[in-house]
Amino acid sequence: MITEAINERYTQLSETSCCLSCGGAINHANPQTGEVCVDLGSGRGNDVIRLAEEVGETGHAYGIDISKGMIVKAKANIEKFEVKNATILQAELENLPLENDSVNVVISNCTINHAANKQAVWNEIYRILKTGGRFVVSDIYATSPIADEYRNDPVAVAECWAGAVTKNEYLTMLEKAGFKKIIIYEESAPYEKGSAEVASLTISGYKPEE
Ligand SMILES: C[S@@+](CC[C@H](N)C(=O)[O-])C[C@H]1O[C@@H](n2cnc3c(N)ncnc32)[C@H](O)[C@@H]1O
Asked: Which structural domain, as residue segments, surrounds residue 156?
């Protein structure tokens, strides 16, 4: 149900140019020549194209998204700008179609809050990152737990607020996944969204040596 609501909402939004981001994750990712990068919830593909340009022809950028419309739009944009070192894949965040220890940097902007099993998503990010690899994620958190009546409401989750967890829960998931050196680069003041109060943050962390 939630996946269907997300597909419907974002397929409609794929043909618009409205801003769907909640922070500047890509500005802190610092991709290097030759690196492999992934954007989770890549939308229309703008950040994938920027990552691909920054890593150059010896690197690669993957965009992963669940919504059909976004996949079509992102592939069209990559073709339009003749980007050769980028690939768009349709998949859920909890089951990433990438090899273990294969990625240098994962970014994501305003997406992980939608996932039904966020711990599984963080475990997947950890799995695909190489040792020493990093993530930089912009996302939202709830200033207090989302009421039960909204938490599993597919439309409210698709609207980018009802799936939010508290900041403490967010940080606990990163720690459980195994990430170290957690840095919060940006954090907004709380604001009203739907029937909740949320805030945005941009956060990074590293996959340490075993
Ligand atoms: C708010 S938009 C952000 C798009 C893009 N990152 C940006 O900043 O413009 C969220 C994106 O995440 C995708 N998405 C939401 N839930 C997802 C899931 N469980 N698995 C994969 N993609 C998902 C949506 O289809 C949508 O394209």
From this structure: 2-206
- Split into its structural domains, the chain has a count of 1
Output b/e per residue, 29-49; b: 16+ Cβ within 10 A.
bebeeebbbbbbbbbbbbbbb
Q: Whose CA is nearest to atom 17 of ligand 1?
A: 66
Q: For residue 66, how far is its CA from the centre of ligand 1 (angstroms)?
A: 7
With a 6 Å cutoff on the Cβ, whether 27 touches ligand 1 is no
pLDDT tens by residue, the chain, 210 residues: 889 999 999 999 999 999 999 999 999 999 999 999 999 999 999 999 999 999 999 999 999 999 999 999 999 999 999 999 999 999 999 999 999 999 999 999 999 999 999 999 999 999 999 999 999 999 999 999 999 999 989 999 999 999 999 999 999 999 999 999 999 999 999 999 999 999 999 999 999 987
Q: What is the CATH number of the domain that holds 148?
A: 3.40.50.150
Kindly give the distance from the C-alpha atom of residue 209 to the centroid of ligand 1, in angstroms, as a whole number: 30
Q: Is residue 110 in contact with ligand 1, taking CB distance under 6 Å? A: yes
Q: Tell me the whole-structure pTM to 2 decimals.
A: 0.97
Q: Is 167 exposed, middle or buried (0-12, 13-18, 19+ CB in 10 A)?
A: middle
